[in-house]
């Protein structure tokens, strides 16, 4: 399996201790963790809501591509965000 294909088969999920929720007072999704809270923009929230521990990265990308057609760099942008979220310790890739 090539790198991109293997990557697409991986399953992103929030790390233990992290919880995603809508925060009415913030008018946005937030990522809660023991030390604090991260206010998410709409794009980050759209990606992280799909990081459910069951959906592969490839399926996640396909779902967002169907929801936001015509976005030329969508797959690349999602992969970059997933990598950043993993580096920051928000998610794991199984």
TrEMBL record:
Keyword ATP-binding found: no
Keyword annotations from UniProtKB, A to Z: PQQ biosynthesis
Gene3D superfamilies on file: Coenzyme PQQ synthesis protein D (PqqD)
GO biological process, one term: pyrroloquinoline quinone biosynthetic process
Pfam families: PqqD
Pathway linked to the protein: Cofactor biosynthesis; pyrroloquinoline quinone biosynthesis
InterPro entries, alphabetized: PQQD, PqqD_bac, PqqD_sf
Keyword Endoplasmic reticulum: no
Gene Ontology molecular function: quinone binding
The protein's assembly and partners: Monomer. Interacts with PqqE.
Entry function: Functions as a PqqA binding protein and presents PqqA to PqqE, in the pyrroloquinoline quinone (PQQ) biosynthetic pathway.
Similarity remark: Belongs to the PqqD family.
Protein name: PqqA binding protein
Taxonomic source organism: Candidatus Macondimonas diazotrophica
Gene: pqqD
């Amino acid at each position: 399996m090539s790198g991109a294909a293997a990557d697409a088969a991986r399953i992103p999920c929030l790390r233990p201790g992290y919880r995603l929720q809508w925060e009415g007072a913030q008018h946005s999704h937030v990522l809660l963790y023991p030390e604090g809270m991260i206010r998410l923009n709409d794009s980050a929230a759209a990606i992280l809501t799909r990081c459910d521990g069951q959906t592969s990265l490839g399926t996640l990308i396909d779902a967002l591509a169907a929801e936001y057609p015509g976005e030329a760099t969508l797959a690349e942008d999602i992969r970059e965000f997933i990598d950043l979220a993993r580096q920051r310790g928000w998610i794991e890739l199984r």
